[in-house]
Design brief:
Length: 114
Amino acid sequence: MSDDSPYAGDIAAARQAGLVRGTGEGRFDGTAVITRAEMAAIAVRAYVFIHREASASGEVPEANEGTVPSWAAGYVSQALQLGMMEPAAARRTDQPANRQDGSRFITGMWNFTR
């Protein structure tokens, strides 16, 4: 993402807070489709940023099934435990996130910030 993008400041703030890390090259591709695994990671990082800890612990079986990449298993497990992700979505984390997924994550975050 270029520095003159209208979102550059927001992305920089999210990166500084540890919510997003960008691609393997450290760049942020604002036009890329976000997967369910990536959304789970961002949502759990936001939860930890707000609460300074993750209240979920242990593994959830769905976090290691289907298409969950190894780097995302912990995030998916926590998202499931926190009610931010449906088990069916957790088994298809390589697929693009949709409105239902986004709504679930937003509702989950809203419930934890009140």
